[in-house]
Here is the input.
Amino acid sequence: MGQIKTIVKYAIILVVIAFSSCNRNVIYSKYVTFNDNEWSSKNNAIFDVDIKDAQNMHDISLMIRHADSYSFNNIFLFVTTKYPDGKILTDTMEVVLANAKGKWMGSGAGDIFDLKVPIKQRTKFPMPGKYQFTFQQGMRQDPLQMIMDFGFEIKQTNK
Here is the structure.
């Protein structure tokens, strides 16, 4: 049974990559996969992005893949952004995964759910260069069970 879940998980990842590669506006899209479907607070999801265009608008999204057996309807994240000039900003955010009735908000395939969450829309980067986005799970349960993958995407919006 575990081997089937692994095959399904990788098939979903390949489908997501295939669809995202068709979109020319996506300038960065990456997933971090967590061993044994556990996200430890010591295991940060780190995304290094080289922003070449600071003139156009961008949409920034998070992608979370979790099992139906995930114990919470949300996830708290500590987000650290390191700018090309060395400036560092840290913030906390909550991502809601289920509605008030407990129905998962993402799309499902069996007992696996994918949710894409827009976090900034039509935003400009202050300068071109290398940015680092670090996400740490901020839940009281550690490690956090049944979080499989965490993704980060930047897409250039149409002018």
